[in-house]
Amino acid sequence: MRLPSFLLHAVVLVALAVPSLAQAASYLRVVSWNLRHEGWTAEQTYTDDAKQLWTQFGSNSTSNNGCDLVFLQEVMNTDVMPALAQALTQVSGVTWNYAQTPLIGRSSYKEIYAVLYRTDTVSLLSSTVYSDPSDLFEREPQIVKVRHTPTGADYTFINWHAIWGTAAERDVEVRNIDTVFKSVQDGSTSDQDVILLGDHNMACTGASWTELAGLSPAVTCKLDVASTLNTSGGFVSAYDHFWMQATYVTEFSSSGRDYVANTTDFVTRLSDHAPVYLSLYSSSDTD
Fold first, then answer.
1. Calpha distance 147→142 (Å, rounded)
2. Within the chain, which residues score under 70 in pLDDT?
3. Mind listing the UniProt keywords for this protein, alphabetically (predicted)?
4. Bridging pattern class, strands 153-161 and 112-118
């Protein structure tokens, strides 16, 4: 039976629409990495850092290459990010841009927080430093809002490098990070997808996290695997995490420690922390 022309036209429109709907869903691939004094004389391995970020995303050597968004800790001067963005652009073949904070710290030792993002998949909405008038944190966190352009999904990230200091000093900072998380969450009526990441110098199982975990809805740690390296290339401590509220961050897909091919060479030349990754999957903004 021959269909009327208007029905044929409708069928064609539906056939064209179905693939486009399927293509709308997409992963946002996020990396967090403490680069160990990046920019100091012996820590300027920008091309090798870029290769690690781009070609080793995921937990094994056969994982798909590529990432979209990179959060960095221990950037030591303002020369680093232009060089690293350029290296990542050359290695990946796509354009990268960045935002960085001023140098932050109570003493003469200071660090910069930074975020790198692919300009074809991520739109940077804002990058600010958390206001800390009570001086609760050695390095008050960087607050970054982004939009995943293929899906329109918005996320807010808290990039934080906790104090090393003493156990008591670490405890104080971790017990107060809930105030940052809640302040960021309460500060937006449109975006509830808040994710805390960075080098927290404490395992997720520590009692100091009670205040953060006790927020409502519950905040849970999505990664607690050894990520620091000793001088022999062995993994030691679980310090690099992703914390989020599953009620809101329904886009969570997976997380883990990025693959490192040669840990001894890596810790000698690149960093004493492996990068950690987070995959977020969505087809639209869920807020």
1. 17
2. 1-23
3. Hydrolase, Nuclease, Signal
4. unpaired
Q: Helices 46-55 and 80-92 sit at what angle, rounded to 10 degrees?
A: 50
Structure tokens at 55: 């070609």
Where are the extended beta strands (E) located within the chain? 26-38, 69-75, 96-100, 112-118, 122-129, 142-148, 153-161, 194-199, 220-221, 240-244, 252-257, 276-282
Q: Which residue in the block uniquely carries the two structure tokens 């001023």? A: 102
How many helices (H) and strands (E) are present in the chain, helices listed first? 6, 12
Task: Indicate the pTM of the whole model.
Answer: 0.91
The domain segmentation of the chain, as residue ranges, is: 30-282
Can you give the pLDDT at residue 64?
Answer: 83
State pLDDT tens for residues 29-73.
999 999 999 999 999 999 999 999 999 999 998 888 899 999 999
Options 3.30.300.20, 3.60.10.10, 3.40.1400.10, 3.90.79.10; CATH of 30-282: 3.60.10.10
Torsion angle of the four alpha carbons 31, 36, 38, 43, in this order, in degrees rounded to the nearest 10 = -120
Q: Which residue has 């030792």 as its token pair? A: 109
Provide the pLDDT for residue 10: 42
pLDDT, mean over the chain: 92
